[in-house]
Amino acid sequence: MEEAEILLCEDTRIAKKLLHLLVERHGLRHHIRTFISLHSHNESETLQSFDPSFFDRNVVYMSDAGMPCISDPGALLVAYCQEHGIDYTVLPGPSAFSTAYAASGFLSPHFIFYGFLPHKGKAREYALQALLHERFPVILYEAPHRLQRLLDELERTVPDRPLFAAKEITKKHERFFKGTAAMLKSEITGPLLKGEWVVILEAAPSAAGVSEISADDIERLDLPPRQKAKLLAKATGKSVKECYEMLLKSDG
Questions:
Q1: pTM value?
Q2: In sequence order, what are the beta bridge partners of 7?
C-alpha cells in the first residue's frame, strides 16, 4: 500500500476514510493521489476503458469490506490482468464466511459457500429448495432488510433445521446466534437486524438415503422438470438423468 500510486476501490469516499484510519492509527505512509471507483455496476466498463499500460504503475484494488472476489467485485480485474499478462498478487483479507463457519460449531470438515441468494421470485425459491437438500452445511450471505424474510422461508420449509447466524463479523457489534429459524426470529429483532449477516444451514439429514422432504413432496412442487430432477437426485441418490426421464414418463 505504501508504494501504491493509484487505488481502485468500490467507493472512493469509504476508501479515503479507511486510509485515513490506517494513517492515524498505524502510521501508514502512502503516496496515493488517484482514486478510481471500480464496483459491481461499472467494473466491466471501467476495465475496458483502461489501456494495459495503465498498470505499469503500482495499482491497488481495495473493497469496502470483506475479501475481493468473494461476493465482492474484483474477479473481472483478475481476469483482465491474466488476459494482458499483468503481474498481480493477492493479499489475504477478512473473509466473513470462513470466520463464521469456525464460530458455528458445525462439525463437518466440508461446507458449501453460496453467497447471496437471488433477491426474489422463482429464482430465489428454486435456489433455496436446492440448497436445503445439500449434504454439507451451506453458507449464505444476507442483507439486513432480507434477513427476516430468509428466516420466515426457513421456518416454513425446514422448521427443525439448526441454523447459525453471525452479524457484523470482527466489528464492534458482532453477535452470534444459533437455533431453529423460529428461535432466531424471536432473538433477532429491531436494531439487532441492522448489519451484514452470514447464515449457515446445517446439512440436510441423510439416513439411508431418506431426505427431510420426500420424493413425493418434490414431485408435487411446481418446478420445471430439470430443476425437479436435480432435487429428486439429491433426495433419492439416483442420477439427474434417471430422475428427469422418470418425470417425463410420468407426465406422459
A1: 0.69
A2: 35, 60
pLDDT digits (tens, 9 = 90+) for 87-111: 999 887 778 899 999 999 998 999 9
CATH 3.30.950.10 maps onto the chain at 96-204
- What distances in angstroms separate CA 94 from CA 17, 122, 246, one per listed residue? 18, 32, 46
- Decide if 91 contacts 37 (C-beta within 8 A): no
- The residues facing 208 across adjacent strands are none
In eight-state DSSP terms, residue 56 is G
- Give CA–CA dist 241/252, Å, rounded: 17
H or E stretch at 114: strand 112-116
> Looking at domain 96-204, which CATH architecture does it have?
2-Layer Sandwich (3.30)
146-164 pLDDT per residue, tens: 999 999 999 999 999 999 9
